[in-house]
Amino acid sequence: MIILNAILRSLDLGLAMPETTQLPPGPRYPRLLQTMGWVLRPTVFLARCREQYGNVFTLDIAREKTWVLLSDPDAIREVFTGDTTLLHAGKGNALLLPILGSRSVVLLDDEAHLTTRKLILPAFHGARMQRYGDLMREIAEREIERWPVCEPMALLPRMRAVTLEVIMRAVFGMESDNDLRHMRRVISDLYAASKGWRALLGMVMFGSASIRWVRPLERALASVDTALFDHIRTRRRDPTLAGRDDVLSQLLQARYDDGSPMTDKELRDQLVTLLWAGHTTTATSLTWAVERLVRHPDKVERLRADMAQGNHAYTDAVVKETLRLRPIIPIVVRRLVEPMEIAGWRLPAGVSVVPCIYLVHHRPDCIPIRIGLNRSAFSIRTRALTLGYLLVVALIDAQGPASPRSRCASCLRPL
Ligand code: HEM
Which of 273, 276, 251 is nearest to 262 (CA)? Predict the structure, then answer.
């Protein structure tokens, strides 16, 4: 019928039948309850929905409205290989607008997205990323030196300190102790103000503008902006700019096709985006890697042997398996511009198709668990070198084999 309809429409004889679209099944309880499930207990909520409705189900999430969750690899492939002019990621991420800013690459679609990505990607080119490796190793080793021995320690804050230092130096290109100290303080205020579910729930329920109701968050964001704008202006005037290797310096020298540079506002939006996308994500993944590894002394030994031989294959597998077992971003979102058939359902325009990383990675039938970090064993302490090495590998190769249209800049894939 779809084909017949298309033929009739192309002949333009006025005979085409209205297209019927349909949504897959999903919970029948009110939107508010579904939203609470999603915000407060996402993993349990998602697993129950899949148990009940299968690999394609519909959720109704506050202002996000209709989400069609996908956890079937073929259906997800349809989305990632689909026409990006009809599957809008930027619109799907609109909630982040007040934080990331309207020029953020994460919020753009179509031509604007391609143009911005073309300017950003060279800064993440493989060879340059490899050069950042030395800096990452140095930062990791310095941090680990300070860790207590034979005492319990909360790992996540320490990993955050490491990845923030990497972003401030490799991405923002900051060097002076004063600048680093000030930026560390305003960013830690921002995280403190955005912590907890209240801010998140408010944004999901009432839209991104509700950020204004969380005054400490608004103030903290304004302080980060002031620090970044000052830094961008200073770096723009820096006579050594051409010889610098950090991401901001690359972006300052990049030019659109008409020869114009990025404005300060565009630069600010990309820097906040890279901070948001690269800082806590990587810190959380590293923390999970250690949490998994300390249960497996044999695997820690194997990692050490791998490193001693200069062989990265096993380390690479540890990073990828950690990302599979503990995916820290549970979904990606694409908003449909037109009705589209996905996973056998003719879906209406305006709904979001949502490949669910969490659910697909918890399907025993499609992701082989290769090295067994999912099993629990007894605890041991790991050694500093392992962590430092994991950090470098994770930051350089965080994503593993990228999907054809994954938008993560750290995947280093061409457009
Ligand atoms: C373990 C670490 C990381 C994970 C799990 C992760 C995951 C993701 C995911 C799932 C997306 C959305 C992709 C899509 O919509 O197709 C994304 C986008 C993105 N990531 Fe990452 N990421 C990580 C580290 C980083 C780092 C270190 C950076 C850079 C400093 C980065 C920069 C970005 C950017 C700029 C985007 C948006 C790209 C676009 O929209 O074109 N990510 N990331």
Answer: 251
d(CA 413, CA 415): 6
| Dist. CA 40–CA 197, nearest whole Å | 8
Task: For ligand 1, say whether the CB of 278 is within 6 Å of any of its atoms.
Answer: yes
- Amino acid in the structure at residue 351: V
How far is ligand 1, taken at its centre, from the CA of residue 212, in Å? 26
User: From the CA of 407, how far away is ligand 1's center (Å)?
Assistant: 7
User: DSSP secondary structure string, 187-205?
Assistant: HHHHHHHH-SHHHHHHHHH
Compute the distance from residue 84 Cα to the ligand 1 centre, in Å.
Answer: 17
**Contact 358/345 with Cβ under 8 angstroms?**
no
With a 6 A CB cut-off, is 331 part of the ligand 1 pocket?
no
| Tens digits of residue pLDDT in 332-347 | 999 999 999 999 999 9
Among protein residues, the one whose CA lies closest to atom 24 of ligand 1: 278
Task: Say if residues 314 and 302 touch (Cβ distance below 8 Å).
Answer: yes
| Closest alpha carbon to 227 in 263, 194, 189 | 189
- Considering only CA atoms, which residue is closest to atom 43 of ligand 1? 408
| Contact 105 CB / ligand 1 (< 6 Å) | yes
Q: Give yes or no for residue 329 CB within 6 A of ligand 1.
A: yes
Contact 322, 283 (CB under 8 A): no
Average pLDDT over residues 278-286: 94
- Does pTM surpass 0.90? no
Which residue's structure tokens are 């084999």? 401
Sequence letter at residue 92:
G
Q: What is the pLDDT of residues 191-242, one digit of tens each?
A: 888 876 666 667 777 777 777 777 888 899 999 999 999 999 999 999 999 9
Model confidence at 324: pLDDT above 60: yes
Please give the number of the atom of ligand 1 that sits closest to the Cα of 92.
15
CATH number for the segment(s) 2-411: 1.10.630.10
User: What is the best residue among 410, 411, 413, 415 to mutate for testing ligand 1's pocket, by most ligand atoms within 8 Å of CB?
Assistant: 410
